Amino acid sequence: VQLQASGGGLVQAGGSLRLSCTASGSIFISLNRMGWYRQAPGKERELVATATSGGITNYADSVKGRLTISRDNAKHAVYLQMNSLKPEDTAVYYCNAGDGPITYWGKGTQVTVSS
User: Which is nearest to 1 in space by CA: 93, 110, 77?
Assistant: First the structure.
């Protein structure tokens, strides 16, 4: 399974970006779990948001109310709408998908928020 993320870029504080990630390849599991993680320079990778195939979502406290995750199960795709972006949202964003102990990672897309 390959995860291809897109949509990162440079935006001013208060702006918006939309990340997309699509899974391709030999998808033999349900990909029940899809989501986004991020890693800022000098920091550990952290959860941003996840969504199950049944629509259950989970967000980091720092992004609640500003970032929204959604899925298109038929397309094996997950999206992250990012509004009211802050400089502290600057990081490489990684797409994640899996089911149970099986986890796949995308290569990441850079998001830079200028003040």
Answer: 77
Q: Whole-angstrom Cα distance, residue 115 to residue 112?
A: 10
End-to-end CA distance of the chain: 37
Give SS3 for 109. Answer: strand
73 neighbors 83 (Cβ within 8 angstroms): no
Map residue 34 onto helix, strand or coil.
Answer: strand
- Token look-up 């949509």 returns 7
Q: β-pairing, 46-52 with 57-59?
A: antiparallel
pLDDT digit of tens for each residue in the chain (115 aa)?
Answer: 899 999 999 999 999 999 999 999 877 677 899 999 999 999 999 999 999 999 999 999 999 999 999 999 999 999 999 999 999 999 999 999 999 888 999 999 999 999 9
